[in-house]
Amino acid sequence: MAGNSFGTLLRITTWGESHGPAIGAVVDGVPSRLPLSEADIQPFLDRRRPGQSRFTTQRQESDQVRILSGVFEGRTTGTPIQLLIENQDQRSKDYGEIAERFRPGHADYTYWMKYGIRDYRGGGRSSARETAARVAAGAVARVILARSAPGNAIRIRGALVQLGPHPIDRSRWDWAEVERNPLFCPDPGSVGLWSDFLDGVRRSGSSIGAVVELVAENVPPGLGDPVYGKLDADLAAALMGINAVKGVEIGDGFAVAALSGEDNADEMRARPGGGVDFLSNHAGGILGGISSGQDIVARFAVKPTSSILTPRRTIDIHGHDTEIVTKGRHDPCVGIRAVPVGEAMMACVLADHLLRHRANAGLVPL
Amino acid sequence: MAGNSFGTLLRITTWGESHGPAIGAVVDGVPSRLPLSEADIQPFLDRRRPGQSRFTTQRQESDQVRILSGVFEGRTTGTPIQLLIENQDQRSKDYGEIAERFRPGHADYTYWMKYGIRDYRGGGRSSARETAARVAAGAVARVILARSAPGNAIRIRGALVQLGPHPIDRSRWDWAEVERNPLFCPDPGSVGLWSDFLDGVRRSGSSIGAVVELVAENVPPGLGDPVYGKLDADLAAALMGINAVKGVEIGDGFAVAALSGEDNADEMRARPGGGVDFLSNHAGGILGGISSGQDIVARFAVKPTSSILTPRRTIDIHGHDTEIVTKGRHDPCVGIRAVPVGEAMMACVLADHLLRHRANAGLVPL
Amino acid sequence: MAGNSFGTLLRITTWGESHGPAIGAVVDGVPSRLPLSEADIQPFLDRRRPGQSRFTTQRQESDQVRILSGVFEGRTTGTPIQLLIENQDQRSKDYGEIAERFRPGHADYTYWMKYGIRDYRGGGRSSARETAARVAAGAVARVILARSAPGNAIRIRGALVQLGPHPIDRSRWDWAEVERNPLFCPDPGSVGLWSDFLDGVRRSGSSIGAVVELVAENVPPGLGDPVYGKLDADLAAALMGINAVKGVEIGDGFAVAALSGEDNADEMRARPGGGVDFLSNHAGGILGGISSGQDIVARFAVKPTSSILTPRRTIDIHGHDTEIVTKGRHDPCVGIRAVPVGEAMMACVLADHLLRHRANAGLVPL
Amino acid sequence: MAGNSFGTLLRITTWGESHGPAIGAVVDGVPSRLPLSEADIQPFLDRRRPGQSRFTTQRQESDQVRILSGVFEGRTTGTPIQLLIENQDQRSKDYGEIAERFRPGHADYTYWMKYGIRDYRGGGRSSARETAARVAAGAVARVILARSAPGNAIRIRGALVQLGPHPIDRSRWDWAEVERNPLFCPDPGSVGLWSDFLDGVRRSGSSIGAVVELVAENVPPGLGDPVYGKLDADLAAALMGINAVKGVEIGDGFAVAALSGEDNADEMRARPGGGVDFLSNHAGGILGGISSGQDIVARFAVKPTSSILTPRRTIDIHGHDTEIVTKGRHDPCVGIRAVPVGEAMMACVLADHLLRHRANAGLVPL
What SS3 class is residue D99? Predict the structure, then answer.
């Protein structure tokens, strides 16, 4: 399958380069008659938008989304929804230096090796700018999720749980705090430390990695299509496919390696009135690739931006040794803006599986 | 897409339950005229086969594979290759106890919630037995990889790098050692410790997690289909979809969170005579979702088996509180036999991307 | 996508060659808890089975199907269903002559050009024998269709409406007659003529074409996924993909070219008590790629078998001019046994779209 | 799969409604470094554009295409190509009457039944306007086909071979004539008759059907992916999925029903210097679902437009009996403008299969 689409019944196709006229997403498979307007999408784009604090790139983009199709009189029609975002601040002059040199750790080199041509302006298609289209699509997916259960719909939230070497103190986790600081930090006690640390990174023209955590609440049991369309496998692909991500965990993640079967077992008790209570959630809400009804918990690690001021040894497109310094506007920590991107990818995966589950469930009454 | 297939041009479909008459895989999209016989597949199945040491389940399966289609006079014909493995040792009596109770941490519960019916014998479709079909398919994928470059073909190897709380000492890594001990341990200095530790786990009827590392050598640059068919995204899905896996890393994985851009940059030097030398491999051989030509390094974490002798609190299918103890034959550490399974999944993903790359490359001479 | 699968949510993968040990189909995506056993499948295979009259090949195959997976205690589990049919009568000696010569009008030549290798025994994968796997899969699809509406489930029937130059008289159409004669002819008045005609064809070692018509009743409105997953487009692919088919029509088919808009309009009247009555069915039950609730009517044309006794000029695999005469056992009219195959393909397409429709419908109450 | 995409390696996704702000296509999977600009696409859109003669709708659309992504410095980059066409002449007042009534023979009713909502303005997504996006995508596919063989690239042409009850005289076929008359008629002797006939249809506010024939030359042998990705099956889906199409034929099509095996056999002779000459082309260039190297010949039948001035009985969205007369601008014969649309669909299918074939061919030298 050509590589710029994902999802089975809810199918997202994104297009566009950092410095082209526009970027966008086609969202196909949205059930009809759901209320949808730009106002449902814009707030999520605004969360991801650059230039909102000193901790993100100073590129100025209003990221105004336009719905070009698939909506009639305020409701979805079941036809593909084209979401278009114009590029505005494309100072191409900033990027002249990287036209012929590869930034170590960047996709510059591999795009060149694969395609033999490269839109070097701002990273072209490999730019983090592409993630705006993901966020727009994710907002549409959330409209589907909002219908998953009356009064108890699926909710997805994300936060930064580690910035560079500094993890949060989980005992202080406060979801409300995430919206109060520009770092999506859920730990009020870490915000100051992180801000100071990141100021240092920024001033030295360096960059730093991070870890993002996502939580989906109210996910009904039964989502996931084993054994190769497992919910966790689809989440892993969706999150690993975000720019700069190098690791994905579900639930306890790599910590399970050190666990015994006794410790790892999420014991169960019947809930008075029906349903089940789990006494722990090492599994992160997914067992055998299928949602259990517990919160789905996923984490992903984001590497530091490769655009830094310290010279690095590299080669140019002619195969000669050289050095590179990346000036221009860049995020000192792309992990920050990866929070809304991760949420969007999780929303797309869950909405797709929700639709897939509906297809197969209930042909015979339970 | 129905969930028991994966891959685009090389497409694997597996079928079968732990205690049905047989399991198998259909491998579609294999180029024609490649030499193939059961002898190319059996050694890989033998590596995964249970009952070979005291550290794996004592279920006795010869795991003899039969090619039912797609091969004519010793060569592939381009038509689908059906690989069939009969089940032999299906002591169903061992599993009577779990017919109505859910093992905490196991897919028992989620299959029941999704499907309303469950082949509880040996875990049915969610059994690790399904991975034999993956290994058989992976062996066919290796036949494709063997053609990737004359004398320099892609090679995939795996090893266990952590058993429970005990990681290997990487300074002692020896690939030859992996084939000498039943734990796929590359560190001669860890084998004794691990054996003793695992004996303790086994004798107490407990289980333990592990971490597997995979390395693919000689992968040409250019494999991967950004931005949603990225090579690392497809690897993440393939590895996360293996039974009991809870985390996947590429290259430095979660450690990148603490890295600076300077440290993370894999600097490059022109190689005399052509090509490029990277001075490090934090990226694990993948940049922007495309292979760079460096070794591809991936790791995945495997949780402990949920089948243990210590009673755990659970519910039954009627919604009543109860306890469960899982007797019968089980792996104390499923992570061990996950090594050949992980290799197979990586082989399938790389072979698929190799074919996809061929479709798109070279229409215009570079 | 590799070419031996079709369907989106109900996904069929077939495998196997005419003279290999077995053929089969994996049916993935079947909802769980549907009653299913070999007895639900065998009658459809028996209808297609060769050697039942003098009008079909005398190859003797019992075509006994075995379910190897996906069914537990008589009900589907939601996991893939492997259907296996062993080949029994593989008189390979009959086919020695065609090993190096291409039958004009047969896939011999194109398989050779595409794959550079060819299992020439009985046509290998391009043999009509592959259609047994389609029929088996179609029987499983019918089990899904049987649940489409209580007491009013989707029903699919087919008939031969033209044999060589002899069309039926539609005024005498009798579905019961289809089951009474070996030609699937719905017109009692044509059976004698057709039998005599076909005896002549058979005795002269020739072959002849035919037209098959399929009717699906009780299809609910709303199936079909415009604009590239249209119900008629998927039916067209499914029917054109049957061996030897060269044309497909929906409703009036090619006759619409000569119709005016007035004549083509299927006028509508409100049905007392709800629903709609159409006053004609030129559309064949599909408008804009979506089922209208009327009977779905499709036809397909089957060419004459290329295996005939009259010498034809051809070349051999070495590129030399030669002639070929095809002895051995062959159907004088493959169109006859295409009737159950066409029904099966239609069943698979409708069941897939039924599931797809369920995914998207009803998220908001109408 | 969500329904607004088609193709495997060359993947087309279209979006947009007749009276929305724009329509477009995302073309993904185009190999990199191919020269491409709007000038390669516009001529094909101009051929399909309405309002160019009195025989097509008088809606005025300049159909100017813009490439928003995937092209850098005049060459493709391997990333998705977004083609955008703004809608200009959207006289919505013309369509007020059909907002609540269903045109018999139109998708009005089925969209309503499937989606419960309908963008009735100009037919919304089911409008023939959507085919402009297909034509734009087809022009990109032709750029791939142009690379299929140096000096001997695949060429696709189409013509109208029947208008209403009037077929052409094939003995007078002249490809140059197709470009000289507004009816895409290849028979100079039919143009006058057809024009007079169509004037009568138009003046009476009626409409009429037609048959289109497509021919692809220089197609190499080996394209097609049996047995469910057959080239003819994919063509059948692509052509049946064009608005108003009710039948598809390959080669002799339905006429094969009356042929004997002797007559149907396309005999072969070795070509001096290599290759093969076929003595006839009943097969239309496809055998066993794979191209033979002969011209690929396909035909499709287009029904008359359902928008006519004569009142037809119908119901409204409230389920009441009523009548409908469709005023406004409509094509008296949508079959005419279906010629460039059919060519585009064939180009997309062939380009996709060309890429798929490249993936699988040549891993072992022939």
Answer: helix
A206 part of contact set with chain B, CB < 8 Å: yes
Asked if residue B206 lies in contact with residue A261, where contact means CB atoms within 8 angstroms, the answer is yes
To the nearest whole Å, the CA of C250 is away from the closest chain D CA by 5
CA D222 to chain centre: 23
ipTM at complex level = 0.97
User: How far is A111 from B289, CA to CA, in rounded Å?
Assistant: 9
Cross-strand bridge partners of residue A296: A216
Residue C276, helix vs strand vs coil: strand
Burial of residue B273 (number of CB atoms within 10 Å: 0-12, 13-18, 19+): exposed
Query: Which segment of B201-205, D58-62, D213-217 scores lowest on mean pLDDT?
Result: D58-62
Question: What band does A50 get if pLDDT is binned at 50, 70 and 90?
Answer: confident
pLDDT means over runs of 10, chain B (366 residues): 90 96 97 96 92 76 94 97 91 70 95 94 92 98 92 95 98 97 97 97 96 98 96 98 98 98 97 93 98 98 94 95 85 95 98 91 60
> Rounded distance, CA C165 to CA C301, Å?
12
The sign one gets for the Cα dihedral C38, C43, C44, C48 is: positive
Q: Are B354 and B145 in contact (CB under 8 A)?
A: yes
Residues 100-119 of C with CB under 8 A from D: 102-107, 109-111, 113-114, 116
Contact B182, B191 (CB under 8 A): no
Q: What is the pLDDT of residue D97?
A: 72
Residue A23 tokens, joined: 């970027």
Rounded CA separation C284/C119 (Å): 40
Alpha-carbon gap: C154 to the closest alpha carbon of chain A (Å): 14
Which residues fall within 8 angstroms of residue A350, CB to CB, at 6 or more apart?
A141, A145, A154, A156, A216, A219, A223, A296
For the whole model, what pTM was predicted?
0.97
Per-residue pLDDT of C303-335, as tens digits, reads: 999 989 999 999 999 999 999 998 876 789 999
pLDDT at D312 over 70: yes
DSSP sequence for D154-187? -EEEEEEEEETTEE--GGG--HHHHTTSTT--S-
DSSP state of C247: E
**Cα(C316)–Cα(C296) distance, rounded to whole angstroms?**
44
With a cut of 50, say whether residue D366 has pLDDT above it: no
> In terms of DSSP H, where are the helices of chain D?
38-48, 108-115, 131-145, 175-178, 188-203, 231-240, 261-264, 334-360
Measured from the Cβ of residue C192, the count of other Cβ atoms closer than 10 Å reads 11
C287–D110 CB contact, under 8 Å:
yes
Identify the pLDDT of residue B193: 98
Write out residues 307-346 of A within 8 Å (CB-CB) of B.
Answer: 307-308, 310, 312-315, 319-321, 335
All residues of chain C having their beta carbon less than 8 Å from the beta carbon of residue D251 are 246
Token readout for A134 is 């993901």
CA dihedral of residues C57, C58, C60, C61 (deg, nearest 10): 10
Query: Among the listed ranges A110-119, C8-17, C89-98, C221-230, which one has the minimum average pLDDT value?
Result: C89-98
Q: Please answer yes or no on whether C364 and A33 come within 8 Å at the CB atom.
A: yes
**What is the distance between the alpha carbons of residues B35 and B77, in angstroms, rounded to a whole number?**
10
How many Å apart are CA B129 and CA A358, to the nearest integer?
29
- A352 pLDDT exceeds 70? yes
**Does position A365 have pLDDT exceeding 70, yes or no?**
no
Q: How many residues does chain D have?
A: 366
> How do D296-302 and D245-250 pair as beta strands?
antiparallel
Record the tokens describing residue C19, joined without a space. Answer: 């003279």
- Rounded Cα–Cα distance for residues B67 and A260 (Å): 39
